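Good morning,

Both structures are done.
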Amino acid sequence: MSIELIGWDIGGAHLKAVALNGAGEIVAVLQEPCPLWLGLDRLHDAMNRILNVFAPGPGCRHALTMTGELVDFFENREQGVLALVQATTQCCSQNSVRVFAGPDGFLDPMAITAESAPKIASANWLASALWVAANVRDALFVDIGSTTTDIAPICGHRVRTRGYTDFERMRYDELIYCGVVRTPAMALADRAPFEGEWVGIMAEHFATAADVYRLCGELPDYADQAPAADGGEKTVRGSARRLARLFGRDAESASLKQWRRAARFFRERQLAKLHSALDCQLSRGLMDDDAPLIGAGVGRFLVRELAGRLGFPYKDFSELFSMVTPQNDFYASDCAPAAAVACLAMREVGPT
């Protein structure tokens, strides 16, 4: 497997990487847990694990995007951007690294200044959206990951978002802080029906969205790389035990069927939140009824369902790439920004 270029997406909880060959085909996709809030050594370890698997040659190039600058290990985002770029150049040859800076394209690490840091910070969504826009005329791109959901309208091969920073995008319902793994279940609802009554939910980190979707039978095993809320087993029984705690109950006090039904309620609350955000985007009138919802992220099974509810066709983000048969569970859709930044960089600088 000859690797020409690796796209990296440094998140706060995961490190994602996508490798391209000289023809621009995806030959490998990996995601490693990387709790960046615990220190930069976690990033070094995760990056080296991926490099050991990919085993790129000395001429391999690297394209970088990120959201990890947000973690509270850093004093502010500027410090985070500069630290993550430096950490990447320590693991990869500095001359081979280029950093995605949104409208400014790809920057040499040595050219990054305090002024360019805001364009680099949390710009991974734009890499994905630009790749969609390059391949599809009109669409609504929706990436539901472990922690967040990114939404970007595409019209006439142009990205038509109104925000750029996290604050702006949250303001316009283009960034929704809910995903299918790490989101605390208590953030999805403050009460839920149980045994014929509405019951208040404990505001405690007892269960996560991973428990909800495991009980619903939808969460891929490979997608959940985060520890459970109680550090316990990531099984259906374990998830029922954690969800029961939100009700002030033990799992044994009710049937598994009842806990599955409770999980479906939390699922519907999250879908309602996402549906509302999509309604907001669609109300702008940019899309025709035959434009697809393009789904990415480990939670893209929800994008498919939302497309059906809204009456739009569905298209998977992986369909926008030429991809050699994967060697593990991950697809380009699971690591959308890493795949996109790799292909955008390959297109900008060309093969060696």
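Second structure follows.
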Amino acid sequence: MVRSRVRLPARRGSHERSRTVKRLVALLAASVLAAACSGGADTITVYSGRTENLVGPLLERFTAETGIDVEVRYGQSADLALLIDQEGDRSPADVFISQSPGATGFLAERGRLRPLGAEVLDLVPAPYRSRGGLWVGLSGRIRTLVYNTERVDPADLPASVFDLVDERYRGRLAVAPANGSFQDFVTVLRERYGDDVALEWLRGIAANDPQRYPKNTAIVQAVGRGDVDLGLVNHYYALRAKAEDPDLPVENYFFPDGDLGSLLIVTAAGVVSTTEEPDLAERLVRFLLDEEAQTFFAEQTFEYPLAAGVEPPAVLPPLASIEVATYDLDRLGGGLERTKELIDASGLEGP
């Protein structure tokens, strides 16, 4: 409810003042009644690292179907996670929606998420939810190598992401070191193989004269123009670009044999531990996993729906046909700062 101040009218004749007072009393009574009705409405607060154009329509439909009002604060996932931790017991957030699993893992590690009920957890296959039951994946994106089909022979594509440090790829690769998904990939690389191996790979990429871009979108555009042959991106960027321009000469290459270069990264949701409305908060998470919401995610973003039984759009190859790499994403939470340190130390820091 929007609260407004009531301005008293200027002094007038007694009859007119009487009529004005009656109107004023009626107005105040209506305002009090509206406030009372609004005060009884259920409301939850969402901190969302996903953008308003994607999450907003779903939250509006949730309110229309349930009568539960939703207040939203949008921002970068990592920033919002830090804010929830800083707010501590005073945080107004009930639900956290994250673009990055690292931000969700951070909150889980800090004890800022509460366990979800089995009826919610069971909606998502085990590889795409928290082992401790603290969050669930909403949608998935796969790290991939986008290439220019007019400049690159598929036979020349690398068998592993580790091969990109080879001399034959010198000056041909684009990267976005400041991008959250790239940093999530490097964090998993560190966790799986150790900091030394991760730093060696980063230095190898940096020494191979890569083209640096601030975002994945810019990489796909550059590959499409022929400015650079290859780029490390999320799978959906090329699909979005081709939806706008079907003649764009770009394709995704998925690394084979479960190579880490084709890591599946999830967007996630969890209930904040200090919520005073746990049932309402969990109801929203469950809503985001129903078929209609999952289909909306997939059709709007070309990401993979993660709720069991929901099929991806026809433009996406089935997950079962791709040998994606998966990882215990709970372990991403504490490693982001160290990952950034290694990227900086490698000389690969972005523009």
